[in-house]
Design a protein that fits this description.
166 residues, alpha+beta, three-stranded antiparallel sheet
């Protein structure tokens, strides 16, 4: 049976797999999917910290790992900006970070309708970044951390949580 952090890790991976995968999905749904990914991604640290199946040393290190990673810290800013109307804590990287759909206004809506969508981006004081690329970097950083702590093994291009052996 998978431990609690492993279930959250797999949930995060499923949200990641949905990003940009469905053609014909409206922009609001795509933005929602990115927010869901970033929330699961950022809060994986809490699942690791609170899962007794994770070695104590890893549980103590995970918060610093996330805070020291500009990409995962940005995920935290996106998450907290999404969850709260007003921030009650200082931002880690970018207080204005949010997910947004951008469209090409030169493509007439009356002609192309929803196909005007150009992409989903992370907007903030630091400018505009492709949201899928940010999400890809987040997943890559989590995989590297989990591998370095012996919690993830690699099979092909997928990271797989190690099963706890009784």
């Amino acid at each position: 049976m998978a431990s609690w952090w492993q279930k959250q890790y797999e949930r995060m991976r499923r949200w990641h797999a949905r990003l940009g995968a469905a053609s014909g999905v409206d922009e609001a749904q795509q933005v929602d999917d990115f927010y869901a990914f970033f929330v699961c991604c950022y809060h994986l640290k809490d699942w690791i910290k609170n899962d007794d199946a994770v070695p104590e040393t890893v549980r103590r290190e995970v918060e610093s790992f996330v805070n020291d990673s500009p990409t995962l810290a940005l995920s935290g800013d996106i998450t907290n900006g999404f969850k709260h109307l007003k921030r009650d804590r200082p931002a880690r990287v970018d207080a204005a970070a949010r997910v947004s759909a951008i469209a090409n206004p030169s493509l007439g809506a009356s002609v192309l309708g929803e196909s005007r969508l150009v992409g989903i981006v992370v907007l903030g004081d630091q400018g505009r970044q492709d949201a899928k690329q940010v999400a890809d970097r987040c997943l890559k950083e989590w995989n590297a951390f989990l591998r370095s702590k012996g919690l993830l093994r690699t099979t092909g291009n997928r990271g797989c949580p190690l099963k706890k052996v009784p």
